[in-house]
Amino acid sequence: MGLFSFKKKEPQIIGLTLSGGGMRGIAHIAVLKALEEYNLKPQIISGTSAGSIIGAFYSFGKSPDEMMEIVRETSFFSRSALKLSKNGIFSSNFILKLFKDYLPEDNFSILKIPMYVTATEMTHGIVDFFSEGELFAPLLASSSVPFILPPVRMGDKIYVDGGVLDNLPIEPIIDKCDFLIASHVNSISYDELKKMSLMKEFDRILHLAIAKSVYSKVKHCDIFLDPPKMTKFSLFNKKYMDEMFQQVYEYTCLELEEKGYRKD
């Protein structure tokens, strides 16, 4: 079971915050599937990086099953989908194509559930939240992992991944709901370290740096979902996506059962 437990509370307005996590964001789809089955469907959502993309697709009306099918059909961090960029290892065109293929309009107005997208403004080192106007640029900015994907310019500001400064963005919705659920998909394993690739070192350093900020927010959540040892799954590879989905789905169901919730 999870480290954090809470007394069952009957929600009126459910808010959901989705962390970043690269391809681990697939785990949020498993969380959404479980929440629906336990009659805990969110009415307002915030997200950063991968969490903002999953949140936007769900807010638009894509079901968890439909989102999993989209993930299966889409090439993400593959050689065929990526091209070198002067501001990042890869171009973000493949992410933009995903939005254009599955979202009918570049505007927050298409979303059926209120959604807040988090991005880090580089010049002043602050977090901005987007909830209206154009949709694709904030989503791109929110998921622009530094050095991996290029920054995104919006007006006179330059943005990168929202997770740099806020990887669990509860702030824009905490006062707009009376029951807050947070899904964090970057729990760190403290098992003995083995030889790591450069990308695994990057992953570990990044999430060690932001972990304190994330866990400081647990006290504000009615349910905090933190599936264990998620860093065994790659940030940039969906090879084990089905294993991850099943693991997180089962974890979420068990956590909800422990807190007194039952499937309809």
Automatic annotation (TrEMBL):
A motif (DGA/G) lies at residues 161-163. The active site is at S49, D161. Residues 16-174 form the PNPLA domain. A motif (GXGXXG) lies at residues 20-25. Transmembrane segments: none annotated. Keywords: Hydrolase, Lipid degradation, Lipid metabolism. A motif (GXSXG) lies at residues 47-51. GO terms for molecular function: hydrolase activity. It comes from the Bacteria. GO terms for biological process: lipid catabolic process. This is Patatin.
